[in-house]
Amino acid sequence: MASTTPRRVVITGMGCITALGRTAPDTFNALIRGQSGAAEVKSFSTADCRSHIGAEVDLSEPAPASGISGSPGTSETRGLRISPRRWAKLPRASQLALIAAGEALGQAKLLDAEGKCTLHRLEISASSTAGGMSCGEAFLKRRLATKESPAPGKSRADIRDLTGYQPQSQIADLHRCFGFGGPYFIVANACASGANAIGHAWQLIRSGAAEIVLAGGFEALARLVYTGFDSLQSLSPDCCRPFDTSRNGLMLGEGAGFLILESEAHARRRNATALAEIAGYGHTTDLGHTTQPDRQGLPIQLALAEAFAATQNSPGGAVDRHDVIYVNAHGTGTALNDGPEAGAIRTFFIGEDAAVAHPDASLLSVSSTKSATGHTLGAAGSVEAILTVMSLLHRQIPPQLNLRDAEPALAGHFRTADRTEAPEVYKAAASINLGFGGSNAALLITRAHTNGNGASAEADLARPEHPLFDFPLAVLGMGAVSPAGFGAEALQNSTSAPVPGSIASIANAACTWPALRVDVKSPELQAISKNPRLRRASPLSLFLAEAARQAIAQVPAAQANPERLGIVSLFWTGSIAYSRRFFTEGHTHGARLASPALFPETVFNVPTSHVASMLGVSRWCYSLVGDEATVVTGLRTAAAWLQSGSVDYVLLLGGEELDPIALEAYARLGWLSSNSSFIPSEGAGALLLGRAQTTPASAADITPPPVISCLREGPGYRSRCEAYAAAAEVFASRPDNEAPCFVWYGTAQHNWLAPIETRCVPAYGHVMPTQPYLGEAFTASALWQVMRASSSLGSTSPLIVPFFGHNSQISTCQLSLNRS
Amino acid sequence: MAQIELSDLKELLVENCMLKMDVDEITEDTPLFGPGSVGLDSIDALQLTVAVEKKYGTPITDPQIARQVLENLGSLKNWLSRQLD
């Protein structure tokens, strides 16, 4: 188990690409000079929108083989080694991610002469809100334009678009381009995600669960998202003016920002230069409204307070709020964001009362860099953290562009481009990000100290190179919404497979595919939809909320103390039904007539935020994008939270909904061919997790809860050969070689994973197949698998539960009834 | 004056704002926003504006006017009747 003394987390590399420049120094220099990336949007038509401006990155230059990821001649930022032909085929989001990650890896001295990562295994903590959405749009447009129903065959363009549109594909591109593998975590907490990606990496390293992590966010401008903000009338028609009293909306941008975060000891061992330190991180969830922040900015203050509190027991020393000289604010430039945020920053840093009054409040400077870079959504938190580090390193404060009459709460705290020099005492800075679904995140960044705590540094050096993080989790409650019915019991009690219904093709109603559905009109879901927060909810949100309700009802202590509860949700597609409806409306009637009520519900973390609001969970809430194997990533996140002591319970949720467009996609991928056993399914699963008791229950009449331990995330693979190696790695590292595997046969039998699942698993233990088959509902299926496995547990023998993910990942966990 | 049926507006309201309440509870005078109302928010206001434009071809561009028009179904009915004359 990891040590309880937190470790120092330093930044040893950074890379960023925005409309202002292709590297972190280029972006920062342009920012300091007062330049803006604002221009007419070119990569798609905005003719039918209310607004037409954005901050796009010019990616029209030749492929990066010529060294585009850095200023020519600098050894730190070597170019990407990728052929122009392959580069041209990459989704825009991948191009942005590769350039920024390449710069970060280069600066951290983790690239060899061939441009490959010198580490074979490097964990990724990433964020995005839309991934390669433009690919998804291209597929949707083709489907809407054609009257034919897709034959269960394969089209090269469809396969390229369908495999490129999820953010997992950008991770695969990073792995492929730089030649490394390892676990990955993709957080989609709307516009706070970029800060969450850094914060999660910080938590892993601080607790000893990881040594070094590539952390950051990427976002490519996409029409669906642009149309969405346009429908909410959140986009400025002319100019983005953060913190100006005449502000009239935000400007969307695109870009990517990546950092190399590592433990201070790890950096020292490999002689890497620490650029700065992540001293603290906090996250809160605003339960008030899906899209409107709290009028007092209280959740922002609580996130900041948590970030500062983390420094209290840190070996780097406590940071005082008066040490902060610069705050990189979220500052979108919308009427509803900037006022409360300005008030929150003033109250927190300058103080309304004598207790926290700033001794020299004039030293505090604030700016929102979004008037220059645009709002880069899922990348914003990472890009802005990098700009904050650059500000600290160069002792320059980014000016506030387009400001005439400042919000009174912060008047006098903004800089102009001719006055950017920072005071000598500048040693700490903060970056704040907010997002839909009430996400609030704060990062606290300090100069890298040279004098650390000697004892802790020595202890760090004595640690193994790859610590095996193991923190056992007790399963205290379960909930399920599945085609078998409501409740975890329905998963176990049903003896025969449900009869599939059918979903008709968008193009041709005569063409239908089998699908296992959940009845949205069922009394259970009708009852939960009466919750005011769930009025506009997608079917996905209803599934998730009902599964969560069942799980938490079994643990009164968790229900009564929502402030001690966190939520981790997992999604493969998110609300695909609402996304398809919203896109189709904009495509058919024009962006002006697309439904504003649908757009927020398409955002990945909004279903999670509804559950948070329903249960009163105002702190840790993450929404992760992934596949079946991501269940173990979610369990590991839960373990990190529980180990840190910040929560006592974690609700792990997974949910999927079906829509004709999903079926069209599966048909195009060849998954629905007549010889395939794949039946698409939908629903949700919920596990209420707590810390496993270290002493076994003494009372014989109390059944101990199932315990999940030995979490293993495979390295990912790109070929059958690598898949066998990945399976060998995860199975070989399990503690009990005799433990039988609990396999949900059929999860992968429809594709090329089949031989790995059916041949590989038996090689590593006795297989217990489960029946009946409830179809493929990705993250939900994986949680159902855990629930079914737990009901098959014997009193002595542990079970290994493997997860074969559709994004080419294998992960496993161990289930037992006691810790031995 | 163009004839606008209250039932049509109720249908538009329930469908667009995805209301789970009994439509008989809504009258011409029931406020749509604020305390003691149907309980709509700013997103519903934008949604109703789009729905009215889509169905009747009458855009409501000024937020101030939108606030008055969308006070209740009666005000919406009167405004639409005048616009369609």
Describe this entry's structure for a reader.
The complex is a heterodimer of chains A (820) and B (85). Chain A has 820 residues and is an alpha/beta fold. Chain A contains 26 helices and 25 strands. In chain A, helix 3 (92-107) crosses helix 6 (167-178) and helix 7 (193-207) crosses helix 22 (630-644). Chain B is globular. The mean pLDDT of chain B is 92. Chain B has 4 helices and no strands. With 85 residues, chain B is an all-alpha fold. Chain B has helices at 6-16, 42-56, 63-69, 73-84. Helix content of chain B is 53%, strand content 0%. The interface between A and B is medium-sized, with 20 and 15 residues.
Give the SSE order of chain B as H and E letters. Answer: HHHH
Biggest beta-sheet profile of chain B: none
Radius of gyration of chain A, taken over Cα atoms and rounded to an integer in Å: 25 Å
Poorly predicted spans of chain B: none
Q: Return residue spans of chain A where pLDDT drops below 50 for at least 5 consecutive residues.
A: 65-78, 452-467
Percent of residues in β-strands of chain B: under 5%
Largest interface between protein chains, with number of residues from each side: A-B, 20 and 15 residues
